[in-house]
């Protein structure tokens, strides 16, 4: 990577990091909403007498059956948050590496 390319990349990274931070916040909000939706569904099932198993294992299986869609949404939201956080981390790592390279190049120039 040439000096000019490092300089240009350093100028673009803050905006990309800000965008990645926004994506993390959005993904976190979606995760919170998915958790709340799952809790509401579980409450509805419990209050609606949708669970009638004889033991805890059967009741848990019945609850999973009734909340399959909400659990899938929750898993998807968790994965989106993890992916967004990883992308943000990579951008921050790249920024630190380029800053170090720029410092080294400044000493050489």
Strand content: under 5%
Task: Using the 3D structure, state the CATH architecture.
Answer: Orthogonal Bundle
CATH C-level class: Mainly Alpha
> Which bin fits the share of residues in helices?
over 70%
Number of strands: 0
Low-confidence stretches: none
Count of helical stretches = 3
Spatial gap, N to C terminus: 16 Å
Summarize the structure.
This protein is an all-alpha fold. The chain is built from 3 helices and no strands. Helix content is 89%, strand content 0%.
Describe this structure as you would to a colleague:
The protein is mainly alpha-helical and about 110 residues long. The protein has one domain: Helix Hairpins (Orthogonal Bundle), CATH 1.10.287. Helix content is about 90%, strand content about 0%. The chain has helices spanning about 5-45, 55-65, 70-109. The protein is rod-shaped.
Supply database-style keywords:
109 residues, mainly alpha, Helix Hairpins, 3 helices
Helices and strands, with pairings:
Layout (H helix, E strand, L loop, with lengths): L2 H45 L8 H11 L1 H41 L1
Helix pairs in contact: 1-3
